[in-house]
Amino acid sequence: MAGSEPVTAPDQHKPGLRKAGRIGAVVTIISIVAMAAFGNHEGRAEEYWSYGIAAGLAAWLLADVALRRSGLRPND
To answer: Environment class of residue 59 by beta-carbon count within 10 Å: exposed (0-12), middle (13-18) or buried (19+)?
Structure first.
């Protein structure tokens, strides 16, 4: 019944598991770099895009860690 449930804002709900997200990001970075380094492609454009995406994901992950340590992002 809706009358007995507390009213909360969407930002009050905790997101998923933070540690699992970080582990997933690291595994994704490693797999992208491995696919770029050992893939069966002839051109270099795929490698550049793959390395760029992996670097962007790593930068996002490092920024998230830095912001959480400095207290600018809430800890879950």
So the answer is: exposed
